[in-house]
């Protein structure tokens, strides 16, 4: 859908009229199919990079950014000239806030679209705002399986409660895998599960995920593991609750 919009909207005409235009930023990330991106809406503009000397007259549905990139930082993606992956990620990390930026890089590493952060560090060199972003790179962890997990991890780390392990396998006395939990404080037998909005699907139509989840919870309890469950609502509206819930559970363990 997004590719069709770029090709069939004013962006297509702009690319024909302006051969120097390059798809960049969030639009480039959409073309690459990166994870942890904001939810797409039809009103989202197409982002194009154009020469600083080019006219940047306003056009509906387009956001024009002035700048240049070396030839080796441009590649065709689905037939459109696009900033390469490292440049695209660096541009977004420099433009976004820390939670969204770390989640974006977590997802890129987790899906192996990105194998290391060296290229991102190189892209930061000499750019405005890069100093603080170098620190963010130390917080990136490709083991996170969702943007929600990434953001919960940052909330807890900021509170001095970083998880000891991510995606930790919990086994019973016979070595059988009972659960692989999102975060774990193994020394205290406390784990955390980040429940996305769509995790359980529609229980009324398909109760299997809910039944499995309850059985899994009972097995963890039998193994003397304490579980904290958090949601997107908790991250967005009451992060202090997450900290308190984990701290209290660790204190009782």
Description:
Mean pLDDT is 89; it is low at 198-205. The radius of gyration is 22 Å and the shape is elongated. The protein folds into 2 domains: 2-137, no CATH class; 147-252, Endonuclease, Chain A (3-Layer(aba) Sandwich), CATH 3.40.960. Strand 8 (190-195), helix 9 (208-222) and strand 9 (226-231) form a beta-alpha-beta unit. The protein is built from 11 helices and 9 strands. The strands form 3 sheets. The chain has a 4-stranded mixed β-sheet. With 253 residues, the chain is α/β, with parallel strands linked by helices.
Computed CA radius of gyration, to the nearest angstrom: 22 Å
Task: Please state the average pLDDT score.
Answer: 89
Largest sheet: 4 strands, mixed
- Unreliable residue stretches: 198-205
Helix content class: 40-55%
Shape: elongated
Helices and strands in order:
Elements: H1 2-8, H2 10-17, E1 22-23, H3 25-32, E2 46-50, E3 62-66, E4 74-77, E5 80-83, H4 85-95, H5 98-110, H6 118-124, H7 130-137, H8 147-158, E6 165-171, E7 177-185, E8 190-195, H9 208-222, E9 226-231, H10 232-237, H11 239-252
Parallel strand pairs: 2-3, 8-9
Antiparallel strand pairs: 1-2, 4-5, 6-7, 7-8
Helix pairs in contact: 1-2, 3-4, 4-5, 4-6, 5-8
